[in-house]
User: Fold this.
Amino acid sequence: MNKKTMMRPAGYQTPWEKIRPYIYIFPAMFFLAVFVIYPLLDVIVRSFQKWNMITDPVWVGWDNYAYNFQRKEFIDAIVHTITYAIFVVGVGLTLSTIFAVWLSKNTFLNNLTRNVMFMPHVIALLSVAMVWAWIMNKDNGLLNMVLNFFGLESLKWIDSSETAMMSVIIVALWKAIGYNTMLIYAAIQNVPAELYEAADLDNATSLKKFFKITLPMISPTIFFNVVMAVISSFQYFTQAFVMTEGGPLNSTLFYNLYLYTKAYKELKMGYAAALAWI
Assistant:
């Protein structure tokens, strides 16, 4: 410490010391402003305009927002997305919890099963969608081959409005269950063994130990999975886009897919901007 530093009044800062923190955070703030804040503000403005990216935008006020609720496609997209979320979150986390409890026993078969179950999570969404589109092909798909082998009739899977939603939900569950299972399995491993030992002394059944010990102890992990699954469900796009493109008869028209269609196929950018904010 030099003499000049020792003689400084308390709280005194040189000009460089005052601006140095702002210089350090400037690159991050610049990218935040350019790639996050500006696009958000621009989308707000576009949502009040009629614009097709070719002609000049025309101010239409709240018409884009009002138009949404007059469209059956818009309502269908919301209903389909919520339906998908309920099934994927509810059924997916229930199955994941059951599998996690089953896999908590340390055996060779369970160790192998854990590795196999996690594999779908690391496969790219596009690859998953393309492979399952072939598996569910109504003419020469693998699933129908198996059904025919056992003397059952073929299903149209993603080519029928009655089974398309079920088909994309099956694919989503297949991809997500392994990841959720591993998180819940890890939470179960952290439950203190003393709690189970005390329950054994009281002759508690396996079912009672699950509901009184395991489930309360892993509830934070389950809550985390619920939040992440809900967010993921409302962002659902890739698999439906590749496998069904919203069809047949809009039976798999999810909200993000509907937004994409309006923006990049019909070039209704103002309407799509309003959809993005809704």
